[in-house]
């Protein structure tokens, strides 16, 4: 599980204040307008920002001061950050520091229907294919939690609907906390067990 206890982050004039609990197997969508702090919240959980106050607990362990590499968080940012000089399979292996078996790669890539893309480079993939590669890369490291920042923002409408259906099924097989950020309320309600509303750096409703 993940727990944020009175977490406060100050970035210039922006202030994030959050309390949040997400249980294993639970999918929580964070919904709100641009600039409300959704991405900052994810990046704080992932370890890119250090709170000035409060605690972040993952599976009972206080990670508030731990660097990102020690948190075992699967994070899919908006820009995906696929390494352009690596093939799909090498992107996946790189994320796990080559600590992944060929059978696990085969299992995950079949699950997301990218098993035919393993030797291709990111520049040759469609938007939807890149999204699926990015989430496989995040899951491949067996994370304790999964964070996704508007993962469908760069795909067309039909691809978005296809990915939503696939991700809705996959999320519920992981048995880890999933936090899915979006500014699309229909998407949030379709994918999540709970929808959290943010405004001006604060969680205002659920």
Task: Explain what the structure shows.
- By secondary structure, the protein is of the alpha/beta class.
- The chain has 2 domains: 134 residues, P-loop containing nucleotide triphosphate hydrolases (Rossmann fold); 59 residues.
- 32% of the residues lie in helices and 27% in strands.
- The chain has a 6-stranded mixed β-sheet with strand order 6-7-8-3-9-10, with helices on both faces.
- A hairpin with a 2-residue loop joins strand 9 and strand 10.
- The longest helix has 18 residues.
- The radius of gyration is 17 Å and the shape is globular.
- The model has no long low-confidence stretch (mean pLDDT 93).
Main sheet summary: 6 strands, mixed
What CATH calls the topology of the largest domain is Rossmann fold
Q: What is the overall pLDDT average?
A: 93
Query: In DSSP terms, counting alpha (H) and pi (I) runs of 4 or more, how many helices?
Result: 6
CATH class annotation of the largest domain: Alpha Beta
Helix content: 25-40%
Integer tally of domains: 2
Report the span from N to C terminus.
18 Å
Q: What is the spatial order of strands in the main beta sheet?
A: 6-7-8-3-9-10
Radius of gyration: 17 Å
